[in-house]
Amino acid sequence: MAASVPTPDPLDVAAEATRGLQGLSTELTARVPRLLEAMRSIGTGLELRVVLDRIAETAAELAGARCAAIGGYDAAGQGLADVISYGVTEADRERCGSLVSARSAGAGLLSADPLPRSFLGVPIRVGDEVFGHLCLAEKRDGGEFSVPDLHMVKVLATEAGIAIGNARFHEATRQRERWIDGSVAVTHSLLSGDAEDALVVVAEKARQLAGSAAGFVLVPEEGGGLEIVAVDAANPAEGAALLGTVVPAGSPAVPRLLAGEPVFVDDPAAEPRPIAGVLGRYGPNMMLPLSGGDRVLGVLATPRDPGARPFTATERRLALQFAAQAAVALVLAEAQRDRERLAVLEERDRIARDLHDLVIQRLFATGMLLESARR
Questions:
Q1: Distance CA 327, CA 322 (A)
Q2: What is the pLDDT of residue 207?
Q3: What was the pLDDT predicted at 17?
Q4: Where in the chain is the domain with CATH 3.30.450.40?
Q5: Which residues form the GAF domain (predicted)?
Q6: Is it true that the peptide bond before 114 is cis, omega within 30 degrees of 0?
Q7: pLDDT tens profile 86-144
Q8: Which residues contact residue 81 at a Cβ distance below 8 angstroms, ignoring those fewer than 6 apart?
């Protein structure tokens, strides 16, 4: 007859569970001061890159991990826009592989070959948006990440979301200030007459503000296309080579631009051939109409280097505002030059009238003298 399995005493089970919870509570309590200090350190940062570096480093130290990485999603949430890593040396890369590489359904952010011996990953949320994932690998003591590790990293990820939101807001504010200052500088330069070529001023300032490889101004040409008439480039030789290039009227983008509609290019290789033929050597691009009244004076293009990140919605909005302000400044500068030319013509006309009157008076006086001499 088979021996019966003794039934565990419920009191013993409850006591064991209580001891486990007490141990867990004690461990979490012991980590609270370090966690609070880490949260204070993270919360004081305003530069997004600095904040992300601090989060990765702090998470690794608090959880005792050799490697830490933060994978941030792109604007569409379909892939990684950036990866911030900590403690990932070349030796670690060979052993842990790529800690964060891409998002796979239900698997989080992990693609390592060989797989790390231990791994912990939690999402970082900024408001209702999933900013990315905080991932830890390779527990320093060789063991597995514990429940206290998980709870602590979750708290840290929550604080990280707040800090990232603050850093984003700070960066957006500074970005707006730069674009506004740039618009004011362009307007002042164009209206003061300091700039020899107003279009080059617009291209130069737009390139600097957009963080682009080049700035181009294109104007409508007789064939219905757009001709590059002003260039400012990080590589002047490459930019100068495009000066005078014409985007033909048959390009799908040209009618949209001439109608006052902006065109944004994330991947030039996927764009129609005429556009790629002109700016194919560059990466993401913004092509913005310079509209004055009911007409398009030209187009402002700010392409980035190949492989650079696309322009964000905020950058696009600020660039559109800059283009609108630049167009107004161009119209005002053109009107000012017209007034100056008119003033010159009016002065010449006045001088001509004065000379005419003087000549007539002298001729009349000479005639009177001759008449007197004849008598």
A1: 8
A2: 94
A3: 44
A4: 25-171, 193-336
A5: 47-174, 194-340
A6: yes
A7: 776 655 544 444 444 433 323 333 444 455 678 888 888 888 888 888 888 888 888 88
A8: 72, 73, 74, 75, 309
The answer for residues whose C-beta is within 8 angstroms of residue 133's C-beta and 6 or more apart is 70, 71, 100, 108, 109, 121, 122, 123, 124
Q: In this structure, what token pair is assigned to residue 258?
A: 């001439």
Candidates 244, 242, 259; CA nearest to 299 is: 259
Q: Tell me, what amino acid is at 245?
A: T
Helix and strand totals (H; E) in the chain: 9, 12
CATH superfamily of 25-171: GAF domain (3.30.450.40)
Overall residue count recorded for the chain in this entry: 375
* Per-residue pLDDT at 3 exceeds 90: no
Task: Name the pTM for this structure.
Answer: 0.64
* CATH placement of domain 193-336: 3.30.450.40
Instruction: Tell me the Cα Rg of the chain.
Output: 34
Higher pLDDT, 35 or 12: 35
Let me know: does 313 contact 323? Beta carbons within 8 Å: no
Alpha carbons 306 and 324: distance in angstroms, whole number: 27
Neighbouring-strand partners of residue 233: 214
Q: Is 227 exposed, middle or buried (0-12, 13-18, 19+ CB in 10 A)?
A: middle
